[in-house]
Amino acid sequence: MPNPHYRSTSYRKIHTKLPSGKSTIHYERRKNNRAVCAICKKPLQGVKTNLLYKYSKTEKRPERMYGGYICYKCLENLIKQTLRGSS
User: Fold this and answer.
1) CA separation, residue 16 to residues 7, 28, 30 (Å)
2) Name one GO cellular component term.
């Protein structure tokens, strides 16, 4: 039976074979997916995905409008559209 903190689904099991020939299970934290833009679905730049508890709020994502949600190109187009009055 694994330790209680390894029973969470945030850990994945890795079956490894030891040099003695015995097989054992190692536990590793799951990796998060890349953050993608909500409009064009391209990966976002400057957004951290793993071990988020180590970083402050401003280190996790850019500090502009919609930072960490849409990419800079889509934001640029959105601002242009709103300033020109079209929707």
Assistant:
1) 18, 12, 17
2) ribosome
User: How many whole angstroms from its chain centre is CA 51?
Assistant: 9
For 36, phi then psi, to 5°, come to -120, 155
pTM of this prediction exceeds 0.90 = no
Question: What's the DSSP call for residue 59?
Answer: H
Tell me the C-alpha distance between 3 and 60, whole Å. 30
pLDDT digits (tens, 9 = 90+) for 41-52: 999 988 878 777
C-alpha gyration radius of the chain: 21
C-alpha span between 39 and 9 (Å, rounded): 30
